[in-house]
UniProtKB/TrEMBL annotation:
Protein name stated in the entry: Spore germination protein
GO-annotated biological processes: spore germination
Keyword Transmembrane: yes
Keywords: Membrane, Transmembrane, Transmembrane helix
Species the sequence originates in: Thermoanaerobacterium thermosaccharolyticum (Clostridium thermosaccharolyticum)
Cellular component aspect of the GO annotation: membrane
Family: Belongs to the GerABKA family.
Top-level division of the source organism's lineage: Bacteria
Segments crossing the lipid bilayer: 302-324, 400-420, 427-453
Length: 506
């Protein structure tokens, strides 16, 4: 058969009655691949033709041999040869002889091939225009290990992996309720990536769930390799530097978000699970905040918010003060800075900008190099280059201190994606502070706030519960109230079931 014609039309083609035609079509489509295995055999005394197909590397061969081939070739001999028909052979295989838990039937060749490439094994019998799809998935996968990007001292240590069903099972193990729904779809013309939508039916808003499905179904792309593809495709404002979708590789954190009424999007092949809707303050909350005592968590949360402001504004404030507002600096400190800057050939703005630029290069080099080498480059490089630059008179010691403090502050932000945003905005703030002084810094901060206030994530204001203000929900923004006082779920996120608990402390 003409393969080019089959490639264009196989998705809508049904199986034939004649098994030889089915075999010819499937071989024309798949035989060029060396990892596709065709196994032909005959069933019963009347030698009814049948064959199965599997992908080497995606299936459990022991399962195929023990639960499919052995029962078919040995046990079917017990069938009554006189009463045997092709249809009865098929029904006997479907109902009695195939001893695996998960099987289904498909008629279209496109659906059969999709199942095959997912790791299932199609079994086709002569004279029947249906295929038995047997679940035999058994590829190699990374074992569950500790999170490397969201480490905690107290709390669960396991993290998501790249296998979809392993990830959904970790969530199912934490939320044991029939209202916890996991729906699946495929995204990508060539990759046909399995994507799962997880939510708690009586907690999540129906309109949010429907919006998630609509946005995913509208995606028309060649392939999805990681959940980052989906994030860019479905976020509300793709031109904003601020992330509007949170992602995490911690099952405990995703389960907690689901219990608040959010929707999780899980992509096969990615250990990062997306969560919507997302608000700004989520990026400064660590999973550990809810495992330690509430007053300790409150202190850490305030420190993180202070670190965020330092990361964004400290270099620009330093440059603006030294360049335009020397009267605001205490006299001994002003004299010390002036003495350090004597002989430095650059302006304060250029000096700070170059130091920030090279600090970012060092940080990027430390991430991209192997772990042992990367740590040495980032730490030793910063110390040696900073000290050498000061001794050579290229930069002042005060500038090195400010840049170092800014870098340390950015490391305190739990979410890497929002930390990158502040690293980007820091350069813009630096230029504004070095040209317009404190006036420019205030104007830039107002513009950032106005932009944040204009953002939404799946219908939820990005700055809520700060703007629009909801005083009842401010107890989980700057502070973290004790668990016995957390009675309600977030009002803007949860659906009808907004009450979290009925516990009252006596």
């Amino acid at each position: 058969m003409d393969r080019s014609y089959l490639i264009e039309n196989y998705k809508d083609m049904n199986l034939y009655d004649d098994i030889d035609k089915n075999l010819d079509v499937l071989k024309a489509l798949l035989k060029q691949s060396s990892d596709i295995i065709f196994r032909e055999f005959r069933i019963g005394e009347k030698k009814v033709k049948a064959f199965l197909i599997c992908v080497d590397g995606l299936v459990d061969k022991a399962l195929i041999n023990n639960n499919i081939i052995e029962p078919i070739t040995l046990e079917t001999r017990k069938l009554d040869g006189n009463a045997l028909t092709k249809k009865s052979v098929y029904e006997s295989l479907l109902n009695y002889f195939i001893t695996t838990a998960d099987i289904k039937e498909e008629e279209k060749i496109g659906d059969i091939i999709d199942s095959l490439l997912d790791g299932d094994t199609p079994l086709i019998v002569d004279g029947v225009r249906k295929s038995i799809i047997i679940s035999t998935r058994g590829w190699e996968q990374r074992s569950i290990s500790e999170s490397t990007t969201e480490a905690v001292v107290r709390g669960p240590k396991e993290a998501f992996v790249e296998t979809l069903r392993v990830n959904t099972s970790m969530l199912r193990r934490r939320i044991k309720n029939p209202n916890f729904i996991i729906e699946s779809l495929k995204v990508g013309k060539y990759t046909k990536t399995n994507v799962a939508i997880a939510y708690i039916k009586d907690v999540a808003k129906d309109e949010v769930v429907e919006e998630v499905k609509n946005r995913l179904n509208k995606i028309d792309i060649d392939g999805i390799v990681d959940s980052g593809y989906l994030e860019e495709m479905i976020e509300d404002n793709p031109f904003s530097p601020f992330p509007q979708i949170e992602h995490s590789e911690r099952p405990d954190k995703i389960a907690a978000e689901l219990l608040e009424g959010r929707v999780a999007i899980i992509s096969d092949g990615s250990p990062e699970v997306l969560v919507v809707p997302t608000i700004f303050v989520q990026f400064f909350q660590s999973a550990e905040d809810y495992y330690e005592r509430y007053y300790i968590s409150t202190l850490f949360r305030i420190l993180r918010l202070a670190a965020m402001l330092m990361s964004l504004t400290l270099p620009s404030i330093y440059v603006a003060a030294v360049t335009y507002h020397q009267e605001m600096i205490p006299s001994p400190l002003a004299i010390s800075i002036a003495a350090q800057r004597e002989g430095v050939p650059f302006t304060t703005l250029m000096e700070a900008f170059l130091m920030e630029f090279f600090f970012e290069i060092l940080r990027e080099a430390g991430i991209r190099l192997p772990m042992q080498v990367g740590q040495a480059v980032s730490i030793v490089g910063a110390l040696v280059i900073g000290q050498a630059a000061v001794q050579a008179g290229l930069v002042s010691a005060a500038t090195v201190i400010v840049v170092a403090l800014t870098g340390i502050a950015s490391f305190s932000i739990p979410a890497f994606n929002i930390a990158i945003t502040f690293r980007l905005l820091r350069f813009a703030m630096l230029v504004v502070g070095g040209t317009l002084g404190f006036f420019g810094i205030i104007m830039a901060l107002m513009m950032i706030l106005a932009h944040l206030a204009s953002l939404e994530s799946f219908g939820v204001p990005y700055l809520s519960p700060l703007a629009p203000s909801n005083t009842r929900e401010l107890n989980d923004v700057f502070i973290r109230i004790p668990w016995w006082a957390k009675i309600f779920r977030p009002h803007k996120v949860a659906g009808k079931n907004v009450k979290r608990q009925n516990y009252t402390r006596s």
